[in-house]
């Protein structure tokens, strides 16, 4: 029986670099799929060949019988990504990107995380993160009403954003575009968010790293930036986008793209407005 692999699609660079452009892989977050990145793909295609991937059990990707762990998700992305690429991951996808950069270090040239923290839940030595009970409640309710749970989580994604109503409507539209994700992927994805702790891994990353946050994020509070910065080595940096919540690339695609492309320019990954 053929091995099940994630749905993925690669788009050619539209800039001067053309076929010589570097590769960029986009990894979405919990409950959604790669279409969530549609608003920023055109700007990225001016510099990169872009591959979008649906996580297993979400979007158009099948759900294998493997144990649904962070390592499994990273290996699934590795199975379909180019041999060497820059990786951008949002929320849960950011954890996948960080794990991928550890497990397959030679294949990851740089990492951008969006609305991601190395640990999503609060601990005695991590007091500004989300209360663990929030994710536990989502997981419990998801067992009974997973569609309703998804919709409520989308609303939390956008809470306090300057364009909150428009953002929620857009996320709902994206959610239903490919049909609902698999229940097991949702529940076990929440377990990954609740249990993962990559704090000690951040300082060990050898690749350039940018961690982007939304000023009004209710899932990853912006106050966590002060706790994250001391964990970064000389390759890591942070950026905060004002007036947006947990989905900055949807709320403010132009501002988000500018922040990310400036990072790539500083590291010589992008040389000017039309090269990749």
UniProtKB/TrEMBL annotation:
A Gene Ontology annotation in the biological process aspect, one of them, is: biotin biosynthetic process
Which superkingdom?
A: Bacteria
- For the keyword Lipid biosynthesis, the answer is no
What is any one of the record's Gene Ontology cellular component terms? membrane
Which Pfam family would be a valid example here? Abhydrolase_1
Which pathway, per its entry? Cofactor biosynthesis; biotin biosynthesis
Q: Where in the cell is it found?
A: Cytoplasm
What GO molecular function annotations does the UniProt record carry, in alphabetical order? pimelyl-[acyl-carrier protein] methyl ester esterase activity
- Which keywords describe this protein according to UniProt? Biotin biosynthesis, Cytoplasm, Hydrolase, Serine esterase
EC number(s) recorded for this UniProt protein: 3.1.1.85
Q: Where is the AB hydrolase-1 domain?
A: 24-251
Q: What class of enzyme is it?
A: hydrolase
Question: Which annotated residues bind substrate?
Answer: 30, 91-92, 246
**Reaction(s) the record says it catalyses:** 6-carboxyhexanoyl-[ACP] methyl ester + H2O = 6-carboxyhexanoyl-[ACP] + methanol + H(+)
| Residue numbers annotated as active site | 91, 217, 246
InterPro entries, from UniProt? AB_hydrolase_1, AB_hydrolase_fold, AB_hydrolase_sf, BioH
Q: What does this protein do?
A: The physiological role of BioH is to remove the methyl group introduced by BioC when the pimeloyl moiety is complete. It allows to synthesize pimeloyl-ACP via the fatty acid synthetic pathway through the hydrolysis of the ester bonds of pimeloyl-ACP esters.
The UniProt entry, under HAMAP family, shows: Carboxylester
Protein family membership: Belongs to the AB hydrolase superfamily. Carboxylesterase BioH family.
Complexes and interactors: Monomer.
What is the recorded name of this protein?
Pimeloyl-[acyl-carrier protein] methyl ester esterase
Q: Which species does the entry assign this protein to?
A: Alloalcanivorax xenomutans
The record's gene field reads bioH
